[in-house]
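Hey team,

Filing this mostly as a record. A colleague (T.K.) asked me to run one chain through the structure pipeline before their review meeting, and I want the input and output archived in the tracker in case anyone asks later how it was produced. No errors, nothing strange. Just documentation.

Input sequence:
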Amino acid sequence: MDSFYFVKGRQTLLYLLSADAEKADRAESIVREGGLISVQVLNEITNAARRKSAMPWKEINEFLFLIRSVCPVEPLTIETHDTGRYVAGRYQLNLYDAMMVAAALLSECDILYSEDMQDGLIIDGRLQIQNPFLI
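Output structure:
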């Protein structure tokens, strides 16, 4: 399956709202290519929008609705949890990153976009981590 997954996509997706035109354009290009996100990405977007940007709930809800209308959402399940614990131990990732990696693996994604995970890392021989702003 040729699909993309937005991990720490919180940041990538929040760049859609950025005044930094270059990053906003790159984020829009990524979203147009299609892809999946996890519930954890939605949680992190919400947290960052409230804590760091002080966005009102109405605007956050509208933004999340827009993201969810464009990107299918992979749920967090017990299988995601079990796979995430395995990934965290094997690749020495923090638990929250590992849960997003697990969701991408379970969705059979090929690429996982992340600004803060190791660019070029290949997980289980089939999922490559890519920094979307280094491409």
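Quick notes for T.K.: Helices lie at 9-14, 21-33, 39-51, 57-70, 78-91, 95-106. The longest helix spans residues 57-70.
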